[in-house]
Amino acid sequence: MKLVLQFLLLAGLLWMPLSWADEKAMDFLKRMNYAAGNLNYDGIFVHIDGHTVDTLRVIHKAENNTVLERLYALNGNPREVIRDAENVWCFMPERKMGHAGMRSDKKTGFPGFMVNNLKDLEKNYILSSGDEERIANRQAASLKILPRDAYRYGYQLWGDIETGLLLKSALIDASSNVIEQYMFAFIDIGGEISDTELQPITRMDKLEWSNDKSPPSNTPISESSWQFDSLPAGYHLVNVMRRSMPMSNNQIEHMVLSDGLAGVSVFIQQVETPSTDVSLDSMGAVHAYTRIVDGRLVTAIGEVPAAAVKMIGNSLAKKH
Amino acid sequence: MRERLSVFLDGELGHAESLKLIKQLDSDLELRGCWQRYHLYGSALRDELTPVLSADFSQRVSDVLANEPVQFAPAKMTKKRRIVGPVAGFAVAASLVGIAILLQKPAIQNTEDTPVPSVAEVTIPLSPIEKSVETSPESTLIVSNSKNENIRERINQLLVEHNEYNPASDMTGLMPYARFVGYKPQTERSE
């Protein structure tokens, strides 16, 4: 009996720190999620993708539950992106082109996904807290979100201890290889941001603009004529839309699946001469799997491992 | 102002002064030029210049990142990544609102028009965390990156549409935009 009690006590001690760490990680994730949408910040960060490195400036203003943001490149072509809740303007001065896009209704996409779906997140990822680190002259706490299987990538995030704002992130695969990183080199958090700081450097009238005419329309999932027979663990259908593609009159069906963090889109297109090619393409961390189903061209694409897009693409079938 | 920029790049300028300086980068083209040049000098002195990276602040920061603990150093480029790099560069740059691809030919101009794929073997690693929980039914997949320009262009268009619905993008709020803004033409990217 004594041995049993000792064993239970030991097991309890081993379990407690882990549980506490998970709880701490979850709380910090909530803080980070809140900070991203509710704080003003102005800083310089680097983006490392493979062996290319870019330096960018971001000015982010949170006002009346709306985010206004301006992002521009400090090296290379002076590209800029300015966005508000409904629109996004994209400046490509090196091509003398711009695009004014309409953002889709986020309420039907992933409404506060991190806050509302944290429990689901735990089914597919392991959350844990890491060590503190100094980033951009601020103390940051780290958090790991590691995948439970090979159908999704993981993240390591470093958040500002004082405010919760994300200061560094790394996309990692199931073998802990880093695929992509972002890190602030300098940041000012909570300062006043004037409207003039959110204005583009590039003159809009110097560019040739193309504009979206309407945002994509949502369709009830039950009305879709397509279904998925078997999906990787944790993934489920969250949204179905009908949308037109630029430079095309044809409507396509856009189905969105998620495990709470990773997202995969499945596009179903009517094509005049469907090729019989099946392809699996890779673009950095993004994979795309294409096949023909019932005469339609089907493409599953997402920032997920190849195995995930292939399984999702293969499980799509017409409803009977 | 130039002196202050130099001090900033050495990481010795105070917070308020640093903020004032980066705000001035917005309107002062000469200062932005200095920004690039100072990094060029610094990198040259340290013999860090390579054809791969642009000569700027980011080089030094990347060096710092590279010296991070092993598991968080930038992953080495695999054979697969070298092969698909040009495609990735273009696709990623065009993400979210990157309509460049929608309005003109892709940055990568293929001389071959045949759909014969280049084949790279990609190993799907088993999770080191919980191997017993669930692993991929296929430990190895063949990624046959299409050489057909039309296929790649279509995939790039779809990636633009997809990015608005990637929950992980919501988490940081930066990624899809950063990829677009940081876009470099193929000729400036490394192989």
How would you explain this protein's 3D organization?
The complex is a heterodimer of chains A (320) and B (191). Chain A folds into 2 domains: 20-210, Lipoprotein localisation LolA/LolB/LppX (outer membrane lipoprotein receptor (LolB), chain A); 216-318, MucB/RseB, C-terminal domain (Phosphorylase Kinase, domain 1, 2-Layer Sandwich). Helices cover 18% and strands 47% of the residues of chain A. Chain A has 4 helices and 21 strands. In chain A, the strands form 3 sheets. Chain A has a 12-stranded mixed sheet. In chain A, strands 13-15-16-17-20-19-18 form a 7-stranded antiparallel sheet, with helices on one face. In chain A, a hairpin with a 2-residue loop joins strand 18 (279-283) and strand 19. The longest helix of chain A is centred in the first third of the chain and has 37 residues, at 2-38. The radius of gyration of chain A is 22 Å and the shape is globular. Chain B is built from 9 helices and 2 strands; from the N terminus they run H-H-H-H-H-H-E-E-H-H-H. In chain B, 50% of the residues lie in helices and 6% in strands. Chain B folds into 2 domains: 2-72, no CATH class; 79-188, no CATH class. In chain B, helix 1 (2-9) crosses helix 3 (29-45) and helix 5 (79-93) crosses helix 7 (149-163). At the A-B interface, helix 1, strand 1, strand 2, strand 3 and strand 4 of A face helix 2, helix 3, helix 4, helix 5 and helix 6 of B.
